[in-house]
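re: the backbone from monday

yeah here it is again, tokenized this time
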């Protein structure tokens, strides 16, 4: 009999278990909304003015599902709305839309209004015994007993479906929900595949391709509407017939004939590999094991070893130009990191062009992330009474990462210490009456002092340290220091710009 592992025995004795999870299970919208409302959950004792409370509750009751943006435009104070939300006098779907980013999509209800769920078609219906969802929107293709249906109008109480014969069927939303959950109605998998293919074709089309497709559409538009004006002088009839055939084919496959008008120049020619597979494998092996190492061999030396290996394996030897092209096509960040280390590769680290929920960002609202740092100003100060040189002062900035606004400022002749940090936090509270939700600092000793950490812990302000050797993490504050010096300090008497 095999012996149980200590972990298994402990789990059986204590009743413990584990479950493997991934970030795909995280509801990023819910997390963002809870972080946004965190300050209001802490201040649950806050009261809302009676007139404002009556106005908000009345609007949410009379116009069930009014958006957050509409409430704000009608004179309701945002802080009062959020306070009533955490006090459970108003209700929203925290999973649906972001309070900070898309208030025009956030629907607000009064808690007494309970009939909204039964009267609205769910935006996502989970299919029975599956991880898939059905999104009831216009154009969604369904399968019911082998027949293809299309959603043409998802109404509040009934949904209109179009059959393959062109007939319109009205079905109650509750009945549609039951049919989907039992598996009688399922989404058409081919429609999703075609929709993805259409999206790929549109995304891969260049600006010149779209311009050519637009020109072709202008030519065949009269033929599509049945109002052709005789023979076209610039385009032959055969070409027009070919474009019309591609339009009809794309309309059947993807639901959009425009895709068929896109030119197919990028698919011309023989694009298959010219070298044997073994040659490509040897190139990848020698680049990974011989070139991308800390020995930092030259490309010419690695190519020489590759030539010998190809001759021994009796396979085609690639040209040096092909070898260079293959080598340079690999990820420059990973290549530099393996040859010269992470510091040298930092400048090639991928840049985030789009900000998604999972993208490292500078916050999506004011006060979410703030940066705290010090700099010595480029100016020598002189006492107005004794004319003694006082030296260069230090400035401590607390700046908001989202709006780039300076929230607090502290000037002193003392070098950075925990006193500078405490004073700038005190100035922030004096000006705005609150603290940041997350504070980003560098690895200085003053930011790890007992008093500073105790202050942040008491008021539940999260502190994050910038990684060393990665200056772009502090670009919010560092750029502010540079601007302050060049635009202000360098224009004052006594500046040290020349030195």
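seq for it, each position gets an aa:
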């Amino acid at each position: 009999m095999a012996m149980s592992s200590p972990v298994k025995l402990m789990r059986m004795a204590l009743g413990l278990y584990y479950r493997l999870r991934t970030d795909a299970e995280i509801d990023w919208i819910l997390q963002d909304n809870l972080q946004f409302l965190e300050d209001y959950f802490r201040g649950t004792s806050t009261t809302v003015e009676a007139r404002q409370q009556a106005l908000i509750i009345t609007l949410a009751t009379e116009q069930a599902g009014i958006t957050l943006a509409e409430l704000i435009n009608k004179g309701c104070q945002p802080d009062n709305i959020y306070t009533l939300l955490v006090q459970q006098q108003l209700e929203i779907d925290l999973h649906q839309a972001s309070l900070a980013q898309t208030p025009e999509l956030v629907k607000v209800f009064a808690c007494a209004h309970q009939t909204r769920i039964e009267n609205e078609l769910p935006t996502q219906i989970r299919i029975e015994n599956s991880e898939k969802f059905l999104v009831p929107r216009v154009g969604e293709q369904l399968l019911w007993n082998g027949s293809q249906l299309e959603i043409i109008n998802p109404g509040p109480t009934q949904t209109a479906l179009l059959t393959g014969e062109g007939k319109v069927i009205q079905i109650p939303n509750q009945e549609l929900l039951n049919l989907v959950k039992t598996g009688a109605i399922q989404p058409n998998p081919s429609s999703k595949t075609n929709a993805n293919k259409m999206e790929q074709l549109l995304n891969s089309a260049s600006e010149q391709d779209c311009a050519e497709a637009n020109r072709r559409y202008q030519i065949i538009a009269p033929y599509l509407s049945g109002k052709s004006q005789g023979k076209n002088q610039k385009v032959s009839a055969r070409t027009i017939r070919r474009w019309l055939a591609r339009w009809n084919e794309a309309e059947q496959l993807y639901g959009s004939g425009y895709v068929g008008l896109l030119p197919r120049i990028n698919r011309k020619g023989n694009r298959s590999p010219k070298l044997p597979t073994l040659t490509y494998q040897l190139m990848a092996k020698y680049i990974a094991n011989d070139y991308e190492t800390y020995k930092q061999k030259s490309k010419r030396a690695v190519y020489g070893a590759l030539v010998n290996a190809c001759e021994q394996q009796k396979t085609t030897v690639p040209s040096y130009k092909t070898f260079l092209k293959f080598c340079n096509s690999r990820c420059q960040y990973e290549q530099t990191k393996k040859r010269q280390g992470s510091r040298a590769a930092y400048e090639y680290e991928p840049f985030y062009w789009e900000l998604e929920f999972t993208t490292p960002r500078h916050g999506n609202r004011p006060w979410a992330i703030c940066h705290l740092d010090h700099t010595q100003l480029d100016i020598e100060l002189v006492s107005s009474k004794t004319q003694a040189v006082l030296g260069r002062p230090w400035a401590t900035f607390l700046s908001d990462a989202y709006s780039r606004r300076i929230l607090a400022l502290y000037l002193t002749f003392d070098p950075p210490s925990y006193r500078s940090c405490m004073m700038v936090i005190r100035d922030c509270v004096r000006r705005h009456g609150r603290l940041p939700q997350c504070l980003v600092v560098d690895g200085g000793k003053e930011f790890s002092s007992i008093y500073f950490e105790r202050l942040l812990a008491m008021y539940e302000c999260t502190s994050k340290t910038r990684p060393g050797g990665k200056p772009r993490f502090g670009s919010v504050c560092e750029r502010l220091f540079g601007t302050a010096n060049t635009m202000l300090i360098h224009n004052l008497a006594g500046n040290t710009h020349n030195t």
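The longest strand covers residues 147-154. DSSP finds 19 helices and 17 strands in the chain.
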